Automatic annotation (TrEMBL):
This is GCN5-related N-acetyltransferase. One of its GO terms (molecular function) is acyltransferase activity, transferring groups other than amino-acyl groups. The keyword Transferase applies. Residues 3-146 form the N-acetyltransferase domain. The lineage of its organism: Bacteria, Pseudomonadati, Pseudomonadota, Alphaproteobacteria, Maricaulales. Pfam families: Acetyltransf_1 (PF00583).
Length: 153
């Protein structure tokens, strides 16, 4: 059975932080994730396998724009389409709420994530020099959403 994206809230912050820490060298704390999930306009989505969170995404909406704050997949569960499931589910939910455009940053040192976003229709619009703790640049990407499935302003 293919996992589905489910909405998650602040009560899941501990488990989501543990997952985030397994995915990134400087994972976000439960307090940080819980605080984000308490903000108006923040959407948390996760996939479970055997009751355990194995993928998560956090989006923040402001009017008709949104930002993908983080997308993480448990290392042992990568390349199984979980990130695609969560990303698509988040885009659909946001589009239904009137979002026209989504932004995100991805490290130039993360080609797997960059390839995922390219396949999903995101395009580079800027770079942020030395954005990440390791000194790598961030590629700023955007995707236009429309209910008819087309992209563009």
């Amino acid at each position: 059975m293919t996992p589905k994206a489910e909405a998650v809230g602040p009560s899941s912050a501990e488990a989501l932080a543990a997952l985030h820490a397994r995915c990134f060298p400087h994972g976000w704390t439960a307090r940080e994730i819980g605080s984000l999930l308490n903000l108006p306009g923040c959407i948390g989505l996760a996939c479970r396998v055997d009751g355990q969170f194995v993928a998560l995404a956090l989006f923040r909406q402001a009017l008709d724009e949104a930002e993908l704050l983080t997308l993480a997949t448990e290392p042992d569960f990568r390349r199984r389409g979980l990130a695609d499931i969560i990303l698509t589910s988040g885009e659909t939910r946001l589009c239904d709420q009137g979002v026209a455009r989504i932004f995100l940053e991805v490290s130039e040192k993360n080609p797997a994530a960059a390839a995922l976003y390219k396949r999903a229709g995101y395009g580079e619009i800027a770079r942020r020099k030395d954005y990440y703790r390791d000194g790598s640049d961030a590629r700023v990407l955007e995707k236009w959403l429309r209910k008819d499935g087309q992209t563009g302003p």
